[in-house]
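Most newcomers find our protein records easier to grasp once they have seen one. A record pairs a protein's sequence with a compact description of its fold. An example says more than a description, so a record of this kind follows:
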Amino acid sequence: MKSKTLFLILFFQFFISCSSYEKYKNNLDFYNDPDLFHRSMQKLTDIIVYDIFSPPVASRIYVYPSVAAYEVLINDYPNYESLSGKINGLNSIPKPDFNKEYSFPIASIYAFITVGKDLIFSENKINSFQEELLNEFQENGVPKDILNRSKEYGLEVANHIKKWYDEDNYKQTRSFPKYTIQRDINESWKPTPPDYMEGIEPHWNKIRTLVVDSSNQFMIEPPPEFSLEKNSKFYKDLLEVYEIGNNLTDEQKNMASFWDCNPYVSHHKGHAMFATKKITPGGHWIGITKIVSKKADLNLMETIYTYTMVSIGLFDAFIICWDEKWRSILIRPETVINKYLDDDWIPFLQTPPFPEYTSGHSVISRSAAHILTHILGDNFEFLDTTEEAYGLPSRKFRSFFHASEEAAVSRIYGGIHYMPAITFGVEQGEKVGDYVVQSLNLSNNLISTK
């Protein structure tokens, strides 16, 4: 009797196991749906906004989880090459046991979330999302052994990536001295209203780059020499910002607002103060990557590949840009205009707390646009809905370069940059983007094969 009962129990367990496996196989499209990764990236963006990370730091939070997800998923796609040995300091990635079955889509998302959790503050928010995904995986029939094995492999790769980025100098720079304001030097950057915040990340050029050789690889000519002589280049540039700011059209205001991407804008009313949180400039381009990946109908591998390459371009572009910002340490238009032209003048956008030259939007937008153009092709029209979540209408663009050019020029409409910072910022970004494309031998025009 006991043996018969044991047989029935074993048979029932076997039947359940087979049924679960069959359900899993029938639902493979669910696990390979790129929407799972889009949702994961969006959750990371939401937490970056909630935790108020600065633009350079946010680029770091985007890139390392993306690399982790990419390195896991290429086990399902042998035509894609590992980034180990191609990006600075990344050693060979642990391999799975190919004699056992995994769900690499599950493992890649698990690696992405594990690394992302290590880089943000609000771990509870990403833990809740992780539990939500795991429940969905189980509801769609993934067998327990495959799920656990996939999670273990995702964790193994995530830990490898953690050891890698622990050596990028980020932790060391947290203890570096703050920038000392040079109040006796006219052209030197000074904190700006309304909060007069200290300069953000003055040592970001010490962060290890991923693809470019060093933070100063793409140095451009210095900004025009500070001068209040009316025939000087600097004074003419200053006057241009002032006059544009005094005569903004509605379209220029819309453009400036759309590309503001200031993660922390403070509002003062009497003795009360409150803040608005928004995505960073890099977060905006991550949002564009989501939109165009969906429009191009990229599969999961192509989607993660595109996010990863864009995030690499953003990360290195911020380092290149911040190297110049904290070398030239140029004063912002608002400070000069208030002191010498009009003490009541306020720029349309709130001036961010770091030096002026070059324009971060110009550098990182051009880098991302160059990479996306190489991957998805030129003249790729898209409707950018990224800012709708923050109460702004969508904008339509003819191409990635069109979007990047608008992002760049929007900064003079915002009253926070002189034109040379925009012009030479675009030049820097083009060089970074092209270097990433050439160095990593990026896949060309993925949609041509659709």
